[in-house]
Write a sequence for this structure.
């Protein structure tokens, strides 16, 4: 009886597992469901994060969302100490627990999509919550949207890793997490969707747009349920006094572009400064906090926190000209010090702050020159300035325009808003090629505009493809033995020259020996290896990525480079060949193409490496049938039993790029649950296996 019950339970679990596999194989339905799940998690993550900021503020000051009046009532030394204390708490978190949590977070998400197939470490979400809440709650000048984007994307990536989805699905999940974060933060579902596809993914493909929309709308519903449905900012009264008033609005777009570029460059240079600063990394956020603390101590606590209070003041026209001018530069310095030093937060809220201030300043100038041709208050100019500066900073005009519409709930100002935003983006791109998000990626060698393939080599280390065999000779080796060594080698294209301590001092490339081949007898007595070697050797370290290696190959016109010991750079430990780098690139592109083309639980490919299959036969990737687990390929004898060939096995591995390790199908390879196998054979057989 017990045995029958166990058999029944096993049968039920098998059917349940089969139903789950069948559902997850239906990509569109599964993605929509996951979009909903990520939206719920992202929405509650945004609500929880905002509450955590309030908790930090209440713990430090005894009040939530402190006003400038409340901060100014504090002793000067308290205002000085607050950001420093926050930096001392944040520093160890981003240094020892999760380095991805420092800064504004969005570039890290973009990098994971471009170079790692959307893989984000699980600890990032926890670290980002604590680090950002402490940074903002203690007075750091940053926004809440960047952390929520990274938190949502990290959780979404974790779900993708749990279900072991393909890189293409993983990117869609990460896009869902980003959209949910923006939508829940700003109560703006359309802006959340556009932020994800325009900035994070850079792809408007319908297949991934639907789950992103679901995630964005769901997160907004959760946010509205707990935080209310009112727009984030009140819409200022607007009227276009005269068609000539479009000229000041156009000038506002140009001015916003210059301020956005100044903000971008200041933040970038500050990051470089703190990166090069020779102090322990964990103390750097406290140094950034010191800069902000000094500003607060001398009477400018206006730069503390997110800054929504002053955006609202600008929208209703209650700020003086001198204060707005001062706050533009103070906010740039404060935000750059916060994020550049390693603090954690976003840049959208500071960008909105700067846009509101520059809008007010432009209105004051226009009103002084043409008082009858502009509106009576600068609220509309502040609103237009917010969209223009966000667009100029991010190089994403669509999401900038939509986010302002949804933040305010008003569409009356659409004409000047679109005019100023488009002009701001055009001018900012002319002034500085990179956006505030991509400048950090470019510094790491990651380029997005030409597609992710340009970043493939950045995910592969030299150690993964280097060869341990290499040719080296002492510097006093005579010409004849050197030539003999060259003629005996069929794999090496260079001979490395070493000194008496066996340290690399140069190299002799085969193509550089042609000028001595016709005069060997005369040169033999007088020429040694050091005399004909290039004594400006090029070498790489095992941890260097292949994009660096490939650039060196192209720059020096070489086909083989020495790989040296990082602890003793003179000691050669191997070599790397141009052909191996090209093979690694092609293999990775093929891997991404195969995995990225998964439309269900199995992949049917028409050809691999341009080799067509016969009619009725396909090549496919299928999840390992449970009956094959714990057996080797020799025992299974799939050629005889199923008329199929196993060519490649992919296995989950946390240490590999994309978390999947590829293995050749050898007879003694033992298969495991969760493996994915690349097989070829009759189409009907493979489809049956895929559904089993």
């Amino acid at each position: 009886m017990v045995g029958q019950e166990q058999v029944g339970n096993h049968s039920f679990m098998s059917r349940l597992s089969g139903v789950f596999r069948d559902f997850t194989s239906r990509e569109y339905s599964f993605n929509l469901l996951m979009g909903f799940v990520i939206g719920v998690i992202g929405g509650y993550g945004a609500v929880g994060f905002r509450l955590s900021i309030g908790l930090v503020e209440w713990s430090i000051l005894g009040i939530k969302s402190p006003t400038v009046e409340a901060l100014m009532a504090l002793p000067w030394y308290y205002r000085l100490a607050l950001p420093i204390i926050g930096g001392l708490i944040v520093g160890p978190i981003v240094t020892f627990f999760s380095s991805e949590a420092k800064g504004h977070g969005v570039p890290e998400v973009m990098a994971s999509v471009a170079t790692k197939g959307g893989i984000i470490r699980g600890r990032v979400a926890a670290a980002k919550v604590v680090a950002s809440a402490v940074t903002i709650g203690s007075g750091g000048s940053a926004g809440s949207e960047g952390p929520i984007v990274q938190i949502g994307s990290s959780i979404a990536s974790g779900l993708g890793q749990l279900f072991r989805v393909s890189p293409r699905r993983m990117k869609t999940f990460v896009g869902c997490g980003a959209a949910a974060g923006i939508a829940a933060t700003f109560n703006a579902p359309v802006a959340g969707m556009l932020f994800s596809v325009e900035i994070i993914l850079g792809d408007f493909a319908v297949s991934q747009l639907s789950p992103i929309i679901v995630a964005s709308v769901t997160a907004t519903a959760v946010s509205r349920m707990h935080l209310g449905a009112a727009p984030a900012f009140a819409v200022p009264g607007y009227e276009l006094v005269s068609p000539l008033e479009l000229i000041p609005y156009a000038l506002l777009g140009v001015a916003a572009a210059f301020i956005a570029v100044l903000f971008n460059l200041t933040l970038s240079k500050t990051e470089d400064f703190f990166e090069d600063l020779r102090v322990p990394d964990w103390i750097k956020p406290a140094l950034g906090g010191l800069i902000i603390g000094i500003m607060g101590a001398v009477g400018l606590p206006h730069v503390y926190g997110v800054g929504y209070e002053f955006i609202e003041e600008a929208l209703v026209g209650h700020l003086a000209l001198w204060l707005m001018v001062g706050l533009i530069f103070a906010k740039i310095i404060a935000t750059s010090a916060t994020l550049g030093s390693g603090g954690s937060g976003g840049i959208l809220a500071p960008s909105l702050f700067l846009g509101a201030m520059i809008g007010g300043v432009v209105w004051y100038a226009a009103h002084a020159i043409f008082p009858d041709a502009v509106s009576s208050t600068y609220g509309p100019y502040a609103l237009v300035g917010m969209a223009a500066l966000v667009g100029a900073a991010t190089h994403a005009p669509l999401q900038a325009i939509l986010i302002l519409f949804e933040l305010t709930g008003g569409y009356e100002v659409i004409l000047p808003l679109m005019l100023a935003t488009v002009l701001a983006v055009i001018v900012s791109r002319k002034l500085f090629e990179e956006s505030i998000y991509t400048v950090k990626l470019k510094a790491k060698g990651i380029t997005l505009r030409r597609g992710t393939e340009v970043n493939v080599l950045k995910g592969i280390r030299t150690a993964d493809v280097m060869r341990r065999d290499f040719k080296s000779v002492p510097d006093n080796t005579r010409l004849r033995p050197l030539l003999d060594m060259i003629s005996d080698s069929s794999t090496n294209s260079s001979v490395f020259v070493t000194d008496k301590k066996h340290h690399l001092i140069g190299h002799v490339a085969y193509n550089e020996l042609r000028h001595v081949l016709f005069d060997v007898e005369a040169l033999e007595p007088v020429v040694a290896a050091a005399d004909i070697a290039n004594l400006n050797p090029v070498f790489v370290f095992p941890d260097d990525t292949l994009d660096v290696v490939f650039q060196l190959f192209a720059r020096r016109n070489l086909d083989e480079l020495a790989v040296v010991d990082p602890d003793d750079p003179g000691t050669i430990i191997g070599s790397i060949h141009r052909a191996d780098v090209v093979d690694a690139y092609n293999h990775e592109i093929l891997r991404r193409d195969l995995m990225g083309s998964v439309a269900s639980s199995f992949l049917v490919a028409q050809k691999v490496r341009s080799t067509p299959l016969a009619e009725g036969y396909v090549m496919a990737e299928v999840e390992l049938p449970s009956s094959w687990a714990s057996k080797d390929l020799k025992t299974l004898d799939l050629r005889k039993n199923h008329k199929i060939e196993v060519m490649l096995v992919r296995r989950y591995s946390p240490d590999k790029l994309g978390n999947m390790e590829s293995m050749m199908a050898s007879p003694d390879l033992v298969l495991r649950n969760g493996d994915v196998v690349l097989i070829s054979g009759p189409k009907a057989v493979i489809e049956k296996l895929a559904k089993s």
Remarks:
- The radius of gyration is 30 Å.
- Residues 449-453, 593-612 have pLDDT under 50 and may be disordered.
- The longest strand covers residues 568-577.
- The chain has four domains: 21-227, 243-443, 462-582, 600-691.
